[in-house]
């Protein structure tokens, strides 16, 4: 081995070590000064929020912010290779001129065009053992989809015609894991017409968390990396399972609308969210909608996510117990872990938590977010689950103690 390749190899090794050692996860301890039965979100998230007070990101979910910071560091280590630097800069300058100096757009478009190959080849620097985690995410999706179909099939709360429609739609659903892809030669062809917006959207894998469109569930790399964090394997699976199950909830909603069970859930969720102090600050009659109505589809998906991923955690638990031939690994702790991993997904920065409900956009006042605030998504979510009260041994007077009126069965 000559001296140059030795240097290159040791450099590569150095980059690798750095990537593995860098903290990609948030291990902030729970806040034991807070009673989880009254303020579960604060119990799980307050220390994390103190540690990561600000974010410039509009989503502000801390797990994704941490990942983006990690991505930024890896990108700066990779740099723009010398041989493409001048093309990269030329392209970016052209874009800036054409697009009113929109730096985010042009940086994204230039990266998608010139650096995607580099990112794809180095995917293991961004997420160590990427292929294993990709496989795991697909397994989680398939299991959730299968169980959701089974639940709908077996339910006596849903009419046959709605069942058939829902099952057909669920069968069509698929998971898309967004990631940099090796570009074919003609992606670099100078003669093709360039749509900077489209190009920039190809660079979304580092920034998107998850969304659903046309029965496709898209997850970004910040979700895949949850499978790589230092928590127990089961906690990682729970976190990803919550996120994917929420997106499956969006697919279920459409065929579900109009069933008697839907009306009951719609009314209950609407009242629950309209009753929040928060709802008084919501633009009165935004398109004739109340706060509970405006956030309904997201709240419905959260409801699906909680019920589906809870079942999934039980299945994963049984599987692990069978594999390890252990009799039982402290069930109470497992339940606690499940709810904690649920809440962790929602921990947001202070800036995000204090974001006004209404923002001004192109001289109009519009709602800032179709989701309810994270604190409600967590606290109202866990109080529906009798298992939560049992796990944390909540007393009847505690705010988040289970009451039958909170129990909303979808299937
Ligand atoms: Zn959603």
Automatic annotation (TrEMBL):
Gene Ontology BP terms: protein processing
Lineage per the UniProt record: Bacteria, Pseudomonadati, Bdellovibrionota, Oligoflexia, Silvanigrellales
Identification of the protein by name: Peptidase M13 C-terminal domain-containing protein
Listed Gene3D superfamilies: Collagenase (Catalytic Domain) (3.40.390.10)
Pfam families named among the record's database cross-references: Peptidase_M13
GO molecular function terms attached to this record: metalloendopeptidase activity
SUPFAM superfamilies according to UniProt: Metalloproteases ('zincins'), catalytic domain (SSF55486)
Peptidase M13 C-terminal domain segment(s): 283-403
Organism listed in the record: Fluviispira multicolorata
UniProt record similarity statement: Belongs to the peptidase M13 family.
InterPro entries in the cross-refs: MetalloPept_cat_dom_sf, Peptidase_M13, Peptidase_M13_C
PROSITE patterns referenced in this protein's UniProt entry, alphabetically: NEPRILYSIN (PS51885)
An example Gene Ontology CC term for this record: plasma membrane
């Amino acid at each position: 081995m000559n001296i140059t390749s030795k240097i290159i190899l040791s450099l590569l090794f150095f980059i690798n070590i750095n990537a593995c050692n860098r903290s990609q996860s948030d291990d902030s301890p729970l806040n034991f000064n807070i009673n989880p039965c009254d303020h579960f979100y604060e119990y799980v998230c307050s220390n994390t929020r103190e540690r990561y007070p600000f974010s410039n990101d509009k989503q502000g979910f801390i797990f994704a912010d941490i990942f983006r910071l990690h991505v930024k560091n890896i990108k700066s280590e990779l740099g723009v290779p010398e041989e493409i630097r001048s093309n990269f800069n030329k392209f970016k300058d052209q874009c800036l001129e054409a697009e009113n100096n929109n730096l985010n757009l042009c940086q994204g478009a230039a990266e998608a065009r010139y650096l995607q190959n580099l990112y794809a080849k180095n995917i293991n620097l961004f997420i160590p053992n990427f292929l294993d985690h990709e496989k795991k995410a697909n397994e989680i999706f398939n299991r959730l989809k299968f169980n959701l179909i089974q639940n709908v099939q077996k339910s006596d709360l849903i009419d046959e015609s709605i069942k058939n429609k829902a099952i057909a739609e669920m069968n069509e659903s698929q998971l898309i894991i967004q990631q940099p892809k090796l570009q074919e030669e003609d992606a670099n062809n100078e003669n093709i017409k360039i749509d900077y917006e489209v190009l920039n959207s190809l660079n979304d894998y580092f920034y998107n968390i998850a969304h659903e469109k046309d029965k496709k569930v898209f997850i970004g790399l910040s979700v895949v990396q949850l499978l790589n964090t230092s928590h127990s394997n089961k906690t990682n699976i729970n976190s990803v399972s919550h996120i994917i199950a929420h997106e499956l909830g969006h697919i279920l909603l459409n065929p579900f609308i109009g069933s008697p069970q839907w009306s009951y859930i719609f009314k209950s969720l609407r009242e629950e969210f309209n009753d929040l102090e928060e709802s008084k600050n919501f633009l009165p009659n935004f398109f004739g909608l109340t706060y509970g109505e405006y956030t309904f589809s997201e709240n419905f998906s959260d409801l699906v996510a909680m019920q589906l991923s809870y079942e999934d955690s039980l299945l994963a638990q049984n599987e692990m117990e069978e594999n390890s031939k252990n009799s039982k690994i402290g069930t109470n702790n497992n339940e606690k872990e499940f709810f904690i991993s649920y809440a962790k997904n929602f921990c947001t920065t202070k800036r995000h938590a204090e974001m006004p409900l209404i923002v001004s956009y192109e001289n109009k006042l519009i709602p800032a977010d179709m989701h309810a605030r994270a604190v409600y998504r967590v606290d109202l979510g866990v109080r529906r689950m009798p298992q939560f009260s049992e796990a944390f041994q909540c007393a009847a007077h505690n705010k988040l103690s289970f009451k039958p009126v909170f129990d909303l069965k979808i299937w």
